[in-house]
Each structure stands twice: as C-alpha cells, then as structure tokens.
Amino acid sequence: MTAETSASALAQACLQRIQALEPTVQAWAHLDVPVLMQQAQALDRFSADERAAAPLWAWTVGIKDIIDTADKKRTLEQITRDLLIL
After folding, report:
1. Is the pTM of this model over 0.85?
2. How far apart are CA 37 and CA 16, in angstroms?
3. Which of 66, 65, 16 is nearest to 36 (CA)?
4. Disulfide engineering: 40 pairs with which of 8, 9, 56, 68, CB 3.0-4.6 Å?
5. Average pLDDT over residues 8-18
6. What are the helix and strand counts (H, E) for the chain?
7. How far is Cα 27 from Cα 86, in angstroms, rounded to an integer?
8. Where in the chain are the domains?
9. What are the start-end ranges of the E strands in the chain?
10. How far apart (Å, rounded) are the C-alpha atoms in residues 61 and 18?
C-alpha cells in the first residue's frame, strides 16, 4: 500500500472483490461491512508516524474457519457438533 492509498479505499476494493467472487466461492459465513468500514476510517486517521510504527496497519485478513463468538450467529454445523458432544 502506498501513502496515497487509504485503508478505506483498500477495504472498498476488497469488498468489491468479495462481491464479485462470493457467488462462486461462497467463503463468507459472516462479513460485517459497517464494522470493516468503521475500522478502516479509524485507520485513515493514523498519522504517518503511527503508520510507520505499525507496518501491518491496513492489512485485510479473512479467517477461513468459523469462530464462535458471542456477537455472531453460529452455523448449523457448530450447533450439531455441540449437541453430539453432549
């Protein structure tokens, strides 16, 4: 990423790519676009010194496996697994 590229622009580009490929790939169980954009906008406010101190500041990452968190819906697979363990 260059100094001219914002985190928001990178996030938008990633979202466009996801939108183009998701019907075929079907990789996303959950994608929180408002949170992504809120975090990207916060990164855009970093100073040049803050960016230099955090070289991975605007990397985008997708996690392959679904992680059970309190604020996200669980998948049927997770619920079934939990029932079988009981």
Report:
1. no
2. 13
3. 16
4. 8
5. 93
6. 4, 0
7. 29
8. 7-85
9. none
10. 12
